[in-house]
Every structure is written in C-alpha cells, then in structure tokens.
Amino acid sequence: MTYDVIVIGGGPAGLSGAVALGRALRSVLVIDSGQGRNAPAEGIHNFLTRDGMSPEEFRAAGRAEVERYGGTVIEGEVVSAVPGFEVKLADGTVHRSRRLLVTTGLVDRLPEVPGLAEGWGSTVLHCPYCHGYEVRGRAIGVIGTPGEQMTDEKLRLWGQWSPDVRLLPLAEIAAVEKDGVRMTDGTLVEREFLVVTTRVEARAGFLGSLGLEAVEHPMGIGTYVPATDPTGRTEVPGVWVAGNVADPMAQVITSAAAGLMAGAMINVDLLPPAPDKQ
C-alpha cells in the first residue's frame, strides 16, 4: 500500500507527529531503527507529567498511542529514500508514501578518551537541565575541549547545582577510571561525574538520494538538516523534519512539540485543492 505519511524515526518527535496524523485519519507508518539518542539515560526530564520516565517506557507508551489511532510501527533501518516516495530498508523491503516526516535524531561523538564512552548517559553527562538536579552537590568535572567558546559559562552553570565543580582540560586527560580522571602527569582527580560537550551528527545519510543533506550548524556544534519554516518543511517538496535532526538543542518535550507541528502541517498539505470559484 501507499501510506499518506511515512515517519522515519520513532523518538518523541516522530511518535508525536504520527499521533497527530493518526488523529487526522491519515494512514501512517513509523519506521524506527531503535537507536534512540537518549537510550543510555535512566530517565527523561523537564517533560511535564512524564519526569523520570525511562526512555524505553516513554517510547513504548508513544508507540501504543500511534497504534491506538490506526498507525503502524515497525523496526528497521532506512538506507535510502527516493522521490515518489519510496523508502528502502536495510533488509531490502520497500515502503511507499505521499509525504515523509524525518525525525531520525542525532549521534553524539565523544572525545576519544579511554573510558569516557563507557559512562555516557550515566556518569558522563552533557546537559545540566537534563541531569543537574540528579547530581546536585556531587563532585563534577567539566572537560574543556579545544576551541570551545563556552567553557567558563559551563563551569558557572554547573556550579549552580554543585559547589564542587572543577575544570579538566581535555589535553591533560589520559583516561577516565572508576574513581575519577587520570591525568597525563599520572595524578588521579577524583570526580563522581563528568561533563563533556559532544559533536553532534544528524542521522541523515539516506536523504542524499532526495537531494537533501545535513549541513554544519551555525553554532559549530555539528550537523543538522535545516527546515525552511517553523513547521519543519524542507526545501524538498513533501519532506518535513522535526526533533534533534533539525534542532540539536531540542529536549524531549520540544521535540515532541515540533513533531506535532510538522504532523499538523503535513495533514494540511495533503488536503485536496480548493475548488475553483467561478
């Protein structure tokens, strides 16, 4: 069959958009790779009435809502999308739709420090609004990366949650160990949590066949797929983007809101043309 909309990405933006479209009586297919950016975290925060819910539980609840309104959710990795729209998965299956909503999110690239990636999402953090309250009063190390413009601001910001915040220049770090950070001079700086700025990369390689590519973000934080208006419309007719793939700074609640907006506008775009007035 040809769906009204295929949603590529089953995170908060994609699921929210799919619910909006399902409630508008549109046929919707959500394709989710299962590689959620916040999967390592214990819980989501700053989402009213959902604070502390695990990402897995949040996605399961979102999938159930999509299916309640007639949508279909499948797991798979999209490898290409061509005008038409034909979406091909890694297993060779092909699905068709009249419109696309891309909500594939981002990949965080951490500095290559031994032991750092193992703590990502638990003891290695990036967002004070996501994790600050949970680590309040604890020993925190802020990793200063070369060329970063906001290191001083990060120190002051994390200092709002803890009086024990210390700057650790990346060039002086040898490895992250169980009890802290081993510096290149051999000393161990005891820290319970580390803060690091990642480089983010949009999950958008499959869009090249549509003539749509990720570009460098104006803030220099990585790549994203820009929208041409606040609804998530892109320069490619029939393709919308929402969530972190279009806004690297978006949190869960704002990604969900962006998905809702995009879904509503896609529904409007699918309306038949108004009859000519004589």
From TrEMBL:
Does the keyword section mention ATP-binding?
no
Report any Pfam family annotated for this entry.
Answer: Pyr_redox_2
Q: Which residues form a coiled coil?
A: none
Keyword terms, alphabetized:
Flavoprotein, Oxidoreductase
Every FAD/NAD(P)-binding domain range: 3-137
Q: Which InterPro entries match?
A: FAD/NAD-bd_sf, FAD/NAD-binding_dom, Ferredoxin-NADP_redctase_2
Which Gene3D superfamilies would you find in this protein's record? FAD/NAD(P)-binding domain
User: Is the keyword Oxidoreductase in the record?
Assistant: yes
Which reaction does this chain catalyze?
[thioredoxin]-dithiol + NADP(+) = [thioredoxin]-disulfide + NADPH + H(+)
In terms of superkingdom, the source organism counts as: Bacteria
Name the PANTHER family on file. THIOREDOXIN REDUCTASE 1-RELATED-RELATED
Descriptive protein name: NAD(P)/FAD-dependent oxidoreductase
